[in-house]
Each structure stands twice: as structure tokens, then as C-alpha cells.
Design brief:
The structure is a homotetramer of 298-residue chains. Chain A is of the alpha+beta class and 298 residues long. Chain A is built from 7 helices and 18 strands. In chain A, strand 16 (241-245) and strand 17 (249-253) form a beta hairpin. Chains A, B, C, D: Keywords: ATP-binding, Cytoplasm, Kinase, NAD, NADP, Nucleotide-binding, Transferase.
Chain lengths: 298, 298, 298, 298
């Protein structure tokens, strides 16, 4: 049973103050202690806990926002090294990670806190290490993807990828492209999908390498086992190339850098409901339900 | 001014009898003579004119149905050699060819017949000739596309394409694929689009060759000038390969056959309204209006 | 150590008689007993063992041919219920399954039989059951893929897919398409790739569902865990629809049929060499090595 | 008959000094006056004419390099307002614009200068105007493409496109993507192709709009008539967005800017040989000749 809930909210949303106030009051009514993150607290003119420290105070996080808010909450949980689960409530309609719409929030909270009815789903993450020469300069864990891509003015980037699989090191390919996405299954419906990559069931353990606008037309997305450790390097010096982690943090890289991506030991725990399912979200978000182009004989 | 209107209707539609009855009565009220096609007449237990003869009796055709009904009406008009325009009313929401929804039919009829306000848009067609050896066995004009494709059990078909452009004959390529679509701009939003081909503005004069599931991964759709006469032949004998014209007429072909596709001298005239436009149909039919996958930061 | 080797050969190949004769003689020289399959034997005017019985007599199979020959050999091994490994020698250059080119055959045979140096790689398969109503009419194991697709004349097929994952049954989607491919990782570089599916590392355990020319343009290939049991049914009666298993066996299906696809308990064992790797085959077969479209600044 | 030839060369090429020396001597032997561009001259330690002035002195340009060198030569010719043709010699194997390989240069020169045997092919260009508010800040003519795209760190850019076709202004779409390519037929085999756009026969008159990694998965490349004047604007302020013309010149743009793209009155004239053809270049450059993934039955 969860006793202390941390609340992380996206605050640039209409009526967010009312939503948070009601939520806090409802949770207190259920006998749950509520700890607000800084942003959520500021909406109520209160003091809250910095996002990256919040996980330390609570035994579960409730995210109010979209998938982006969820990801930044997941990052905080991860950095706290505390292994607590996250419940995502979408302030819009429905997200891949925030699968509970606001209209169903109270019903779901009652399931979780009164009847103890919920399910914990685990999602894999990737550890990304950026080296400059032999020096490790950045180490981060990503939930969605690690991307190397060129700036608007740069020309095609040749990116060499190596894979270490069961202690053998293989040359995968040199991609000539606008960039490269290394995505988790959770990230497969984000940038990877826009770049032509496949949808991967989110609880699977694997990675997908998807080139962005490859100039070798026969290049295709490549799904690899999660224990494949991937190394990405520029094969030729090109200006204005960046490594971007989960779409939010960017580092300028050169031919001296290499990005090493491998399975993270940590997983993110998501609180889900039995009656929710991934395929419903998929069909809704991607508009699969309607037949858009009808048969010529219609 | 149009004085005699032929009506071609899709009849497997709820309340089609009421719709046709009201339409006939409305048109008569506007002083227009109405000639029903066979199917439309049968719904009212009357005798009508066979579809392919209808164009001979009237100076415009009104189609009630979907894009498929429109195409078969266009075929009739074409075979009649009479150069009359077609107005398409969609019994569902909106089609690429039947751009007037039922709910706006009377408003549009009043524009056309009372205020004489309408616009004639011309759409190119392709003449398709099928030869067995030197013998011409079939000659048809298509509005959407000529397709060569394999049956469910056949293996990859190697299809050799030649193009005659300004009196030179060029070897285009041998495609190894499930088949090949040669499409008009009107047909570009039909099978061509499902196979990965581009959308082509419908009043343009060109053709697009799109391979279906090509095994040479670098194959791409190819847009050619309309005066390119294309010849398609099987490069190797494969069982169970068909040539299909406008998705409706199929001919089994062998290595002895060749399909020759070129610009038709005839064009189809479509009656359109100034306030309708192609891009509106495109965005609606293809669901472009909504952003389906939101930014990670949403 | 392998003592009895069965040989299955593609026989429509130049000099196949000499190749087999030399091979037999070489293997005998190594002290190995050779049992020829029917086709291989017929080339030497001898009597051989029927392909599907061959596995019963030997403790390893050597395939001389292409990936297709390998697959049919794998099917025989599988039907024999004997768990023996297969070594694939390609009579052309290189295959995904037959990774040893003819020019390296003797070197590899010496590794395997003299120095006992080889590696066994396991590939998953899928069990496919076809039901008509409640009656199980066909049960087969596929190495590459189970495909449902329409004939050349059929219109779009609506295919409903359900997935059973950890005892829950989910509605995945209704695909409106030319057909649907359910592929193993081994099959991912075959029909799946031509239809736009991803490449999946061959020793992984998962399946990919790839629609063929989907009319819902936002449909994308979907990678699922191998323990997902998939059921495919037609959602509307369409004539001329077939289920095809490994590209070779076809069954006409109707709305009364359902195809159930799940993980096979059996795996195929492939004899590989340490110095061979999947990415080399990939780059060579898909032409990734050369940069085909150079930068504008080249 | 051409009497004065300007030579523009890519100089970072092995033995370029010998190649130019021989070329000059050969042309002089044919009675042709040769004027070297600055770079070509510098290789011989001579003084040459600045690239953008060269067209003013000669009646044809010979380009030694790749397609990129050709494009910059075309830009010079265009800026000179002199309507002289260009002959492209590729220092590598073959280009879309530089279709003569070095090994055939002398044979082709003899055709052109001795036997007067050649063909002039015209390629359309696009005039691009960039406005900040109402002020025209840049006006350029592009040979390949005008691109708007985001930098490595920017999020999805919403780009609103309007089209003026026969004096009507239409809302085309708001694309949510990494960017947008507006390409000529000549440019269709460059960035457009990498982003999933179709190949367009190079002498056609049309434009293609291709979104780069669109997040609306049903977006597709759109081919429009050349007289469509397109306006592209950001629909929301996003940092780090650039307009790039022919891959070489970049301008940072904001929500206040709009890019207007329309048919150029000028065309580029290319000197071609009867025995060369576009499809040969296509098949060679895109590796269409070989069947890369063979049938399972091979």
C-alpha cells in the first residue's frame, strides 16, 4: 500500500490550480500523505520539493501532464536511485505513458488506494555514456532514445556503428544520414516512428537503430537484443552534430567523441490498470480505427 | 445550361429510394429533364437506361455514390465518346471525386442549375493496350490506374518497363516486386498511395510508376511526363499474374503479353464548386488535421 | 562430433553433379558417413532418402543451395522431430541462412569435422494453426513467415488481429490492406523487409506483424514478444484470400477461418563459423557498403 | 558552334592539374578558346576569372567535378543572366547532372566540338523569396531545393503551407515535422529522395513538397504543378529553425518570416549526349540492377 505520494505536474495548463487542489484534497481524504513537487506547489503558492529530490520523500509518484512530463519524472526517479513506481494522468486525452485521462483519475485513484487494484509494468531504459577520447564526459540513463543528428546546415553525417553482442564486437554499418536514433521500446512511438521505425511492444527488452533520412536507400531500421552494446562514432569530421538524450539534453560532438549505449540495470515501474491496454492507446493515438481511404468500389 | 441530366446511383445504400425520388422531383422542379440509369430506376421500380448508353441521352451525369461509382460512370461517359461532364455527390462524407456531401447536394444543384455557377475541371486518363504477341487483345481507358500484380501464391514477379519519350525508347528498369502500379494523378490517392507512392495534384498531366513491395529496397516511385508511353512485360514466366484496370477488370497475363500505357486523348470533365478544394479533401480523408503524436514535451 | 551427414541439394545448378561427387569424396576422406537426399542422389544416378525421412538417418544436415533450400531442409528436420543441426552452403554468393559460399566450403568442413570448431546458433520458429470454425484443419511450423494476402483481383482485405499476451486477450487492430505478414526474426529479411518491416537480429525471440500496402496510412510494423499468440481473421467476406506458410504452401481462407500463430517449442539449430557474422551478410546483401547518393557537395 | 569555353573544376581531386592541363591542350587543338575559372587556374598557378563572372566571357561552361560542382556552376550562370549551356564531366563515375565520366570526356568533346553532335536539355528552377514581415530580405534561384528544417536541439516544427494555384489561394496543410523540402525534379534525387519523396523525371515542370520525419504518420510527399506558388511559415515560434537553399546557404528564420517559392523564368541548359539516358544513371546510382534479396525459392 502506498502511503506517501509525490505529485509532479505540468503547470502551463488551464485550471491546473483547481485540479491540483482537488487532487490533494481527494488523496488526503483517502488517508494518503501528499508531497508536492516544486512546480505543482508553486501553482498553489506553496513550497514544494525539487523534482530530483522528490522521489526520496515518497513511495510513489503521480504525474499530471503528458508523456513529456512523465519522462522527466522518470528521470528524477531514476536519479534518486529509489525504485518507486509512477502513475501517469494525462491532462489531454491519452498518452502512451500517461494512459489515464483526467476524467478517469478519481476512479483509478480509488482502485489503487482503496481497493489496492493495480498492476506494475516495467519498462527498460538505456545507459548512455559519451566519451571524448578515453575520457567519460557524460553518463545518463534514457527512457526513450539517444539521438545523434546534424544541425540544419550540416551536410550528411557518416555514422559508424559497432555492436558488442555476447563479447564479440561487430561492425554493424556506416550510416550516411541526417542522424541516427537508438530507441527503447517505450521510445519506439516517439521520434523513431516519425523516422520510419517500427512500433515495439513497450515491455519488451530490445533496442532499435533507425537512421534519419538515410542516403543509402536500402538502409532499414534494425532491432537488436537489449544486451547488444552499441558504439556510435562520426566517420568523418562534420560540424554542427549533436548527441541528444530523451529529446532534451544536447551535446555537441566531434570525431573524437563516441557514444556507447547499453542496457540499464534500472527499470521504470509504471502503475497501470487491468482495463487499459497498449493497443487501445496505439489505435487511438495513431488513428487506426477509421478506414481513411476506402476501396475504389465503395 | 444543362437540360437533360442522367442519374447513376450506388443502390446498396439505406434510403436510396427516398434520396432518388426527392432528387428527381427537385430537378424536375428546376425544369431539368431527368433520365435514370438502370440501377437507379430499379430502386423506384421503373425502367432505366443501361449505364453505358446513358451518356448518349443526356448532357450531364449526376453520380450518387462514392469514388468507385464515379469511376464506373466516367468509364461509361468515356465509352460513349460523348464529352459530357459529371457531378459527383458522395453518399458518405466526402470523396476525392465525389466532393459534394449529400447534405450539400441541393445547395450545389441550385448553384449549377439556377445560377449557372460551377467550374469544369479536367482529369487526364490513360489508354491501356494489352497485346498477346503482336495481337492487340484489349484496349481500355483507365481513370485511376493500370496494375500488374501477382496472385497470393505466386512468387516475386520480375517486370521489365520500357518508356518511349519523345520518340526515344529507354529501358527504365526490371522491378522485382509483388507488382507495379501505373497511376494517373487522380489515381495517386488510391492504390498508389497505399503502396508508398506520392500524392499528385489531380489536374496535372503525368503518370507515376510505383512498385508494390519491391525486393530491391532502393526502388522508389517514379513520376514521368504524360507523353511517356510505357511498356510492361514479365521478364520471366511466373504463374498467376494479372493485369487489372481501375481495380475492376482483370486479365491473366503471361510472358507473351505486354501492356502498353499512354496518354488518352480523352479527358473526364468534373463539375466542381469554387468553394471546394482538393487540399480540404486531402486533409480530411488522410487525417492530416490533428497532430497524432505530440512532442515529447507536450 | 558428427558421424553421419545428410546432404540436401538444389539440383538445378550447373555442375551440381561434380560438386556433390567431390563433396561426398571429401567427407568420406574425413571419415564421415554420407547419406544423400533423394534429389542429390538422383544427380549421381543413385538412390537417396526422401527429404522428410533424411533427418532420421543422420546427425547433421548439410544444405547445398540457397536460403529456400535451407528452409525446406529446416522443415524436414522439424517434421522429423529430430533435433539435429544444419550447415548451409550457398551455391551463389552468400545467403542469410546459407552463409558459407561454395568457395569456402572445404575450409569450413575441415573446421567442423577435423578441428571440431563451430558454433551452434538457434533460431525460433512459429507454430501456425488454421481453424475452419472450431475444426483444426492445418498445423504447421514456419521458419520465416505466415502470410495472409489477397489475390490479384480481390479488393482490400480487412484483417482483424487479436493477441493473447500473459493470458489477457487484446484487440490489436483491424488492418485494411493487401494482406498481413507475421514474421520471425529469420523471416524479417524476406517478405517482411519488402513490405517495409524492420530487420530483426535473427537469434532474437519475437514476432513482427507487417501490413502489406495498408490503406490506413498510419499503420506501421509492430514488433511483439514471442509469447504473444496472435489470431488473424477476415472481418468481412472477401473472395480469393490465401494463407501462405513460408511462401510455399497456400490455403484459401474465408470468414469462417482463423489463423492462430504462436511460438514453437522447437528451434532450428544452425552451424555457424566464428568468423562469419550477420552484419556482414546484411551489408553485402542489402548493398549498404557503398554510398549510393552522394552529398550535393561531392 | 561553341567558340569560347569556361572551365569550372573541383580542385580537391588527385591529378586535377594533369587533367586540366590535358583538357586545355585538347580544346585548343580543336580550335576552341579556353577561359579558366579561378580555382581551375590556381591549380596551374595561373590567374582565372571569378566563378560568378566567368559566364560573361564564354558561350558554354564545362564542369569538372560532381553534381555539387555542377550546381554551383549553374548558380553562377544563372546570376550572370547569360543563357549559356553547361556540360558536366564527373571526376568519379557518374552523376545525375554530370553524366559524362572522365574516361569518356574526350569522346564527348569531339562529338560536341568536331561533329556538333549534342542535345540541349532544359531544367526548371525555383525562385525563392524570404520575407521578414513585409520586407523582402533574400531572393535566390534554386536548382535542387529549398528546405526549412530544425536544428539538432529544436523540437518538432509546425510549418504552415499555402499554395496559390491559378489565382486562388489554398491552405495546403500544417506539417509537424523535422522540416520540409520543396524540390525541383532535378532535386528529387537529392535530399527529397532520402526523405522518402518520389523520383521525378528531370525535364518535367513541377515541384514536390516532402515533409522530413513527419509526426502525422499519414503525411505523404505531394507533387504540385509548377505554377503553384508556395508559401511556408512557422505556425508557432520554435528556436533554431533554418531555411537552406540548394544545401549551401542557410538563414535563421522565425515566426515573422515567410518563404515564398515559385517557378523561375530562367532554366538551366545542359549539354547531353543522345546515347546517355536518365534511367541508366538512375539504375546505376541507386543500385537497381542487381536483385538484392532473392526469392525464398532461389
Amino acid at each position: 500500500m502506498f502511503e506517501k505520494v509525490g505529485v509532479i505536474a505540468k503547470t502551463k495548463v488551464e485550471n491546473i490550480d483547481k485540479i491540483i487542489k482537488q487532487l490533494v484534497s481527494h488523496l488526503k481524504g483517502l488517508g494518503v500523505e501528499v508531497v508536492l513537487g516544486e512546480e505543482a506547489a508553486s501553482v498553489l503558492n506553496e513550497n514544494g520539493i525539487e523534482r530530483h529530490k522528490l522521489a526520496g520523500y515518497v513511495d510513489m509518484i503521480l504525474v499530471l501532464g503528458g508523456d513529456g512530463t512523465f519522462i522527466s519524472a522518470a528521470r528524477s526517479v531514476n536519479e534518486s536511485k529509489k525504485d518507486i513506481p509512477i502513475l501517469g494522468v494525462n491532462l489531454g486525452r491519452m498518452g502512451f505513458l500517461t494512459e489515464v485521462p483526467l476524467s478517469e483519475m478519481y476512479r483509478v485513484l480509488d482502485s489503487v488506494f482503496i481497493r489496492n487494484e493495480y498492476h506494475i509494468e516495467e519498462r527498460m531504459m538505456l545507459d548512455v555514456k559519451l566519451y571524448e577520447g578515453d575520457e567519460l564526459i557524460i553518463k545518463k540513463t534514457v527512457f526513450n532514445d539517444a539521438v545523434v543528428n546534424k544541425g540544419a546546415l550540416a551536410r550528411i553525417v557518416p555514422l559508424r556503428v559497432k555492436a558488442r553482442i555476447s563479447s564479440n564486437i561487430y561492425h554493424v554499418a556506416v550510416y550516411h544520414a541526417d542522424g541516427l536514433i537508438i530507441s527503447t521500446p517505450s521510445g519506439s512511438t516517439a521520434y523513431n516512428l516519425a523516422a520510419g521505425g517500427p512500433i515495439i511492444y513497450p515491455t519488451m527488452d530490445c533496442v532499435v537503430i533507425t537512421p534519419i533520412c538515410p542516403h543509402t536507400l536500402s538502409n532499414r531500421p534494425l532491432v537488436l537484443p537489449v544486451d547488444a552494446e552499441l558504439t556510435v562514432m562520426m566517420d568523418e569530421e562534420i560540424d554542427d552534430v549533436m548527441a541528444t538524450l530523451d529529446g532534451q539534453i544536447g551535446y555537441r560532438i566531434t570525431k573524437k567523441h563516441r557514444m556507447v549505449v547499453g542496457k540499464s540495470k534500472r527499470k521504470i515501474k509504471i502503475i497501470t490498470q487491468r482495463d487499459k491496454n497498449y493497443f487501445d492507446v496505439l489505435r487511438t493515438k495513431l488513428n487506426w480505427e477509421e478506414r481513411k481511404i476506402r476501396s475504389l468500389k465503395c
